[in-house]
Amino acid sequence: MEKFLSKRIVLVTGKGGVGRSSVTAALALASAQRGNRVLVSEIEEPCGGFSPLARLFGREHLPVKPIKLAPGIEGGQLTAAKGQEAFLTSVLKVRTMARLAMRTKPLLAFLRFAPSFHEMGIFFHLLTHIKSQTRDKRNRYDQILIDMPATGHTLALTALPQQLLELIQSGPIAAGMREGQEWLNNPKTGAAYVVTIPETLPVTECMELIDGLQQTNMPVGGVILNMVPENPFSTSEREELQGLLNGHSFFGQRYLDRIATTSRAAEKLRSEVHVGLLSVPYCKASGTELPKMMASRLLGESLRES
Ligand SMILES: Nc1ncnc2c1ncn2[C@@H]1O[C@H](COP(=O)(O)OP(=O)(O)OP(=O)(O)O)[C@@H](O)[C@H]1O
Ligand SMILES: [Mg+2]
Predict the structure, then answer these.
(1) What is the pLDDT of residues 194-245, one digit of tens each?
(2) Which of 54, 154, 206, 217 has the fewest other C-beta atoms within 10 Å?
(3) CA–CA distance, 70 with 68 (Å, rounded to integer)
(4) How many CB atoms lie within 10 A of CB 209?
């Protein structure tokens, strides 16, 4: 937790349904409780609809310009169009010109469909938040947490700076990509946290994603093992119990099996990936209460660590 709290930019990633959005909201609450000014973000959904991340803070959507979601927490969408506009403004120097350019249909069609321009826009929008300052010249956000989309999209974004820099070595695009790399690829400031659940296949997929992230030079801060079942037994109690239960079927067998699968999954992660492991228990809560409960468990774990 302490390591996580010190990162400026955190990408929360993992395969679908493992709890990325819930973990992002919980991490944001935990971080704000520890005094950070936090921005939570998600990448625009092309089809619109409600935002699962916003719902965890009691709203239906996140606007593009961040709004206050909770004490110490703002939330906003990252959009390609906003980043492209910010990029054009930095090149053309005049925002009105950039806004006019962003209304020209051929340019819009080009930006929408040319490969990598979408990711580039998102990247530039993120940079504007990283550099955003308050009137008294302090960073507006101590920490920016991004609820990343599914695995493939995450890697498309983390691979982008290097790929573009191989094609374009000078000029404003290259400068922006290098600036982004300085934040994201520096383990002091940037980290990806991979969320997974304690089951065999998701753990294997999590390890593949860690490999993919490392290949794109994205530092991996840790793995967050989510929905961990509570384990009321010590190892010796469990062994004793096993002796009594062997060969019988009993109420609660599946729960005990889940506990066993969880310790195997945690063991596999500890022995094969050399990154920190944070556990979040399965919480009997929903809506805005779920991330609050998860956050208090995360903070509890950090107290035990210290
Ligand atoms: N620690 C937890 N305890 C209990 N339920 C959880 C926990 N974490 C997540 N959930 C539940 O699991 C479901 C999936 O969570 P969430 O929407 O955060 O996952 P996701 O990875 O963001 O999914 P998607 O791939 O759809 O974006 C939700 O119903 C959520 O309430
Ligand atoms: Mg989600």
Answers:
(1) 999 999 999 999 999 999 999 999 999 999 999 999 888 888 888 888 788 8
(2) 217
(3) 6
(4) 23
Total structural domains within the chain: 1
Residue 176, φ and ψ in degrees, nearest 5:
-65, -45
Residue-number span of the structural domain to which 231 is assigned = 2-305
Question: What residues does ligand 1 touch, defined as CB less than 6 Å away?
Answer: 16-22, 52, 226-227, 280, 282-283, 286, 290, 294
Nearest CA to ligand 1 atom 10: 19
Give CA 276 to chain center in angstroms. Answer: 15
CB 141 within 8 A of CB 129: yes
In a mutational test of the pocket of ligand 1, which residue from 12, 21, 40 has the highest number of ligand atoms less than 8 Å from its CB? 21
pLDDT tens track for 99-121: 776 677 776 666 666 667 788 88
The average confidence (pLDDT) of the chain is 88
Quote the CA–CA distance of 105 and 294 in Å, as a whole number.
46
The model scores a pTM over 0.70: yes
Q: How far is the CA of 226 from the centre of ligand 1 (A)?
A: 9
- Phi, psi torsion values for 69, nearest 5 degrees: -105, -30
Question: How far is ligand 1, taken at its centre, from the CA of residue 113, in Å?
Answer: 32
pLDDT > 70? residue 278: yes
88 or 270, which is more confident? 270
Give the phi and the psi of residue 303 in degrees, each rounded to 5: -65, -40
Element (H, E) at 292: helix 289-305
Is pLDDT at 272 greater than 80 in this prediction?
A: yes
Half-sphere exposure (CA, 13 Å, Cβ side) for 305?
A: 13
